[in-house]
Amino acid sequence: MTVRRGRTVRRGTVRRGTATALKYLSLVLVCLVMVLPLAAIVLTSLKTSREMSTGGALALPHNWLNFANYVTAFERGNMLLAFGNTAIILVVSITGTVLIGSMTAYAIDRFDFRHKRLVVALFLVATLVPGVTTQVATFQVVNAFGMFDTRWAPIMLFLGTDIVSIYIFLQFIRGIPISLDESARIDGANSFRIYRTIILPLLKPAISTVVIIKGIAVYNDFYIPFLYMPSEDLSVISTSLFRFKGPFGAHWENISAGAVLVIAPTLLIFLFLQRYIYNGFTAGATK
Which of 26, 198, 250, 256 is deepest in the core (most CB within 10 A)? Predict the structure, then answer.
């Protein structure tokens, strides 16, 4: 019996050791998959055109202080103007999404009106329709309102197509007791004051979740700015990189330098605000 128990313990120890080794091996592989593309971009941004044509993507550059590609990307790509346009679109879109989404969720949860279930069902149906299939009609509407080739085109599209934020706010509002609304109404508060003074301050976890999700989507979007803002003075960070694509090929060293300039702000924001980002996603998941 003692021998059998010893063998069982050894087998269990071997299995736990194997499981631990496989776990760390999988983590190392995932890290390599995530880090290798970033390393290739950084190395490419420090190379010259000749080095790009003779070496591989992971080949080391001869001069580690070659920042000429960054200067070219910043100047020819109009990165400063692109960052400004992106910031304007980002701030207005996120602010409008938070206000419209929270107000809509508040009205759906707290008010009774005719065809309420139909409205909620239509919101769900809208999330199932691929956005590409409606781009012809959307382009005609945007052009008819005179918003084509202006910043208002992506702003209005980002505001009008974010059904996910409504459902995020709706899940949080359903967790707020209705007794708070009733107490405020006894004190003479109207619906908008209840929303502004009671509901909105309690939606901070939901707001952080929506800001993170929406901010990443707007910052990384290429299709909408490329289609609705073709002018060079209205370029954003995603479309500015496309300017290095010429008729005879792509200038990958300049594109990589521009990609590093684009990645750097989001990486710094993530490093400084990762605790709030994780808390926002966790709060949204638990609701």
Answer: 256
